[in-house]
Amino acid sequence: IITLPGKKLKLVQQELLINKWIDVLSKQLLPYTLIGRYDFAGRRKWYEINLEDGKEYSWGSEPAASILTQKNFIPQEYSIYTSKKPSEVVKDLKLTPSADGALKVYQKFWSDASMEKYAPTVDPLLVYAELIASKDSRNIEIATEIKEKFLHGKF
């Protein structure tokens, strides 16, 4: 961080910081906050689950990328962040617990209401980090778009 005229602060080496955040997120934070893996009950599609208010549940990773970019990006892996208990998640969202389910539900690890700005998705920085951490080429491509659209000049 450097100080600019007028006592403004500027973050330098943003890429290095974001890359470290991605590493910590994928290796430590996500495994620690994982509530469980699930399947959508009754062959429901992810977009049939209404998370509009963003207060109880927020989309992450691929569904969030699809929503943020408004592209025909079809998610294959899903993530939702919540502050609810596992039993409430299953009941509210009509999910089926599954050891290899495509939907990962994580405990929210923030308390700042400003993270709800992008409801029904989490903050684009978290979406970007999840997509890059997946190491999937199609996710990296859409992550680049999210970075350009939402993160350029944010820091």
Question: Could you please describe the fold and organization of this structure?
Answer:
The protein has 155 residues and is α+β, with helices and mostly antiparallel strands. Helices cover 41% and strands 19% of the residues. It has 5 helices and 7 strands; from the N terminus they run ββαββαβαββαα. It has a 5-stranded mixed beta sheet with strand order 4-5-7-3-6. Strands 1-2 form a two-stranded antiparallel ribbon. Helix 1 (14-33) packs across helix 4 (124-134). The longest helix has 20 residues, at 14-33. The chain starts with a strand and ends with a helix. The mean pLDDT is 88.
Question: In whole angstroms, how far apart are the ends?
Answer: 10 Å
Structural class call reads alpha+beta
Run of helices and strands:
EEHEEHEHEEHH
Instruction: Classify the helix fraction into a percent range.
Output: 40-55%
* Overall body shape: globular
* Multimeric state: single chain
- Order of strands, main sheet, comes to 4-5-7-3-6
Characterize the largest beta sheet: strand count, sense, and whether it forms a barrel.
5 strands, mixed
β-strand amount: 15-25%
SS element count, helices: 5
- What is the residue-mean pLDDT, rounded to a whole number? 88
Our Rg estimate from Cα atoms comes to: 16 Å
Spans with pLDDT under 50 lasting ≥5 residues? none
Please report the total strand number as a whole number.
7
